[in-house]
Amino acid sequence: MTQRSPLLAPAFLIYTVLNAAAIVALMLWGDDDIARWFRPRRDTAWAAFFAAITDFASGWLWYSVALTGLAGAYVRYRSQQLALGTTAFTVRKRAWVFMIVAMATSGIIGVALKFAIGRDRPRFLFEDGGATFHPFRMNTGDSSFPSGHAQSITSAMLALALIYPPLRPVFIVVAALIAASRTIIGAHYASDVLGGVWLAVAAVIFWRHRFEANGEKLDLTLARARPPGS
Question: Which CATH number is 7-225's, of 3.30.70, 1.20.144, 2.40.128, 1.10.260?
Answer without folding.
Answer: 1.20.144
